[in-house]
Amino acid sequence: MTRLRGDAGRMGLEVHPYKMGWYNAKVEEAFRFPLHHDTLAVLVVSTPAMFEKLFLPFLMEESFTTEKVDPLDACIRAAMKDTSKHFPTEYKVEFVQDSDLLPSRRPRILVQTAGHVSGAAYYYQRTDVDPQPWSQESPMYGVSVHPKYGGWFALRGVLIFNGLLAPGLVEKPPIDCVSSSRDQRIKLLEKFNYSWQDYGYRDVVDGGHVEDRYSERQKRTFQLYRERDLSLCVNGGQEPKMVTSSDIQLSLNSLLTYFNLLSPAVSQIRTVYPLNFL
Ligand code: B12
């Protein structure tokens, strides 16, 4: 665990161990993992530093090709694969990512619940506000808040150590960092649900202080990401359409143009992309 934590830290990631049974106890049947209660699971969280320490260097690697439809997912997956090389071979270690789906199209892992039971980040749900000001019919998605980074982080996935039991692991409750008032929790949930695009929910934390935030460059890149995702998945807001290679080409082009404009150093990316993608 110490080695894993060290590796993760160098990449701008954090790791938080928990027992699969703690997670299974919270979620509905459909989301449970059919594993022994004490099975070791480790949540992987990205901090604002991940962008510079891991993602930009990954984009510059020789091995990066346009076949990887989602570079960020591919980047985290590669980092976990690399780190897993140090694990004893007798355990079957699987990395389940936030974007992985079950055949039912539901997410394979609910990373916010995993964040809560591992003690990494408190998961605020509508039930954390009493009484609730919203009607039961209106959706109000929950949001996790990290004690150091507020909302300036992401929950990337979980390493599952099949066959490795950790009976001695002690549950560490997450830090309740939006504890000051009911109004603060309402503000947090409403900002996350109604105006997440302005990043405001990420600063709703007791005392209003966070240790680090995404840089302007990181924000802009992730924004391009979302635009790209929409262009890939949505056809004028109507029916989902098939993803074509020209969609992917278009989106990667905009990402690369942006990098090239911002930083001459990153323009090396040009050299590792096939020319027809530029
Ligand atoms: C599908 C999805 C969406 C959908 C639907 C949202 C939703 N929450 O359902 C849409 C497209 C709308 C969406 C949008 C966004 N999303 Co989104 N999304 C997801 C995704 C992939 C799955 C969420 C899901 O379907 N949950 C299923 C429901 C049923 O889970 P649930 O409500 O938590 O219910 C469970 C808990 O209540 C638990 N439970 C029951 N009792 C108890 C008690 C306790 C104490 C606990 C802990 C748990 C617990 O059991 C229930 C299940 O049985 C997650 C990643 C992931 N794999 O988890 C990201 C995720 C939630 N999204 C995220 C973000 C940031 C966004 C956006 C801001 C866009 C963006 N990426 O920048 C917007 C903001 C929301 C909005 N205003 O629209 C982040 C949230 C980070 C955070 N700080 O919490 C996540 C975690 C992705 C990530 N990698 O970090 N998203």
UniProtKB/TrEMBL annotation:
It is found in: Cytoplasm. Its cofactor is FMN; FAD. It comes from the Eukaryota. Its main location: cytoplasm. InterPro entries: MMACHC (IPR032037). GO terms for molecular function: cyanocobalamin reductase (cyanide-eliminating) (NADP+) activity; demethylase activity; FAD binding. The keyword DNA damage does not apply. Keywords: Cytoplasm, FAD, Flavoprotein, FMN, NADP, Oxidoreductase. GO terms for biological process: cobalamin metabolic process. The keyword Cytoplasm applies. GO terms for cellular component: cytoplasm. It holds the Pfam family MMACHC. Belongs to the MMACHC family. This is Cyanocobalamin reductase (cyanide-eliminating). It comes from Geodia barretti (Barrett's horny sponge).
